[in-house]
Design goal:
conserved putative lor/sdh protein from methanococcus maripaludis s2 fold; six-stranded antiparallel barrel; 6 helices; 26 strands; disordered N terminus
């Protein structure tokens, strides 16, 4: 009986050893998808992406190198491209949304210089363009009509009593000056002296060029001396006004160059300096207003149009690579460097400023390195497929 138990024990021990060998052998392989090499599993099954059966792949021993060699066909099919690293100017920039507004330095208000009733407005629509010298409104004013009569009376007395001791020329000039101060032109005053009977309505003309931005009076309305009739604005220049967060303010001062672009107008861009930075920050939104003057060439721009203002900070010369050359994950950033024909090695790099599709490399590369600029992720997948580990793991300390 003891012999039977002894042989049973030997048999179980042998089977256990065989099982351990089988487990050890099994641990030397992993399962992946031939179409999606990023899928890795310790057990057979189906690919969660394409649902094909996973294939068994021998698990390579930990390699002391991060190199991988590709065939000419792989290089061609993967569109693998390399380039020597080079330096270029790069710096921080901020892209702000903005709105085009009227340049308030080019706005004018047309006001009544004497009390009266507006009996006609020659321009009533906001957006109408008015040229200097065009009629704006007709005014009925008792005061102005009395001043006209005084001027005509002074002319008549000068004509009939010119040799009198009274200086009628001085009276004529005083009456004329009053009419000019109340808004009549030299031509209107001259025509008044030639008329048999003056009109009870006086037409006032625009002293400026510009687009009507506001009409502050209506026909039939009485206006006081100094009351605004309408407002005009020249649009030769506009303000691109943008809001800047407090975190972006260190990049901005009144000597900073800004580039203004208009959505829907790809051919338009204008460079200018920031002319105004609001010294007060909005307490609720934590934003500050900045203003850039834009030249309105050919009058294509209109107030209210959206715009983008790009603020460029200090530019420095640095080693840069395209975004596509960098492989990033939670463990860091790496690039593939060519070490021989069709042979590449993974290197960890430190990144700096990002701008216009390029990334600054602050450390990790040498001046004579040749880097993969296109197809870096395909090389990464091929390495994972062949070696069974992510090349990033080789950089862990």
């Amino acid at each position: 009986m003891k012999r039977i138990f002894f042989f049973i024990g030997i048999l179980l021990l042998t089977l256990g050893c065989q099982e351990k060998k089988k487990e050890a052998k099994t641990s030397d392989i992993y399962y992946t998808c031939s179409m999606h090499p990023q899928v890795i599993s310790d057990k057979p099954g189906k690919c969660p992406i394409c649902h094909m059966n996973l294939i068994a792949v021998p698990r390579a021993k930990k390699s002391t190198t991060d190199e991988i060699m590709l065939s000419d066909q792989q290089m061609q099919l993967g569109n693998i491209k390399v380039d020597s690293i080079r330096k270029r100017m790069i710096g921080k920039e901020a892209i702000l949304t903005a709105t085009l507004n009227i340049d308030q330095r080019n706005t004018n208000a047309v006001s009544a210089r004497v009390m009266g009733r507006i009996d006609r407005l020659h321009h009533k629509n906001i957006g109408d363009y008015v040229r200097k010298g065009e009629p704006l409104f007709d005014l009925y004013s008792e005061e102005l009509n009395n001043a006209k009569q005084e001027y005509l009376l002074a002319l008549e007395k000068r004509k009939t009593l010119g040799n009198s001791v009274v200086d009628f020329q001085h009276l004529v000039q005083s009456a004329k000056n009053k009419l000019l101060l109340w808004g009549l032109t030299e031509v209107q005053v001259r025509q008044l002296g030639q008329a048999d009977k003056p009109s009870v309505h006086t037409t006032f003309y625009s002293p400026y060029n510009g687009y009507i931005t506001a009409v502050d009076a209506l026909e039939g309305q009485y206006v006081m001396d100094g009351g605004t009739i309408l407002r005009l604005a020249e649009l030769k220049t506009l303000w691109a006004e943008a809001q800047v967060y407090t975190t972006q303010m260190p990049q901005i001062d009144q000597n900073t160059i800004a580039e203004v672009q208009i959505p829907g107008m790809p051919g338009f861009h204008a460079n200018g300096r920031i002319e105004f930075v609001n010294p007060e920050t909005n307490e609720a939104s934590r934003v500050t207003l900045i203003r850039v003057t834009v030249q309105n060439q050919e009058n294509k721009l209109r107030p209210g149009m959206p715009a983008y203002v790009t603020i460029k900070g200090i530019q420095n010369e640095a080693i840069t690579l395209p975004y596509d050359a960098i492989i990033q994950d939670g463990k860091g950033a790496t690039v593939w460097v060519q070490t021989a024909k069709n042979t590449f090695k993974s290197k960890m790099v430190m990144l700096g400023v990002e701008n216009n599709g390029f990334v600054e490399i602050t450390s990790g590369l040498n001046a004579d390195d040749v880097v993969v600029t296109s197809g870096a992720y395909l090389i990464n997948s091929e390495y994972t497929f062949k070696v069974g580990t992510n090349p990033m793991e080789g950089h862990q300390h």
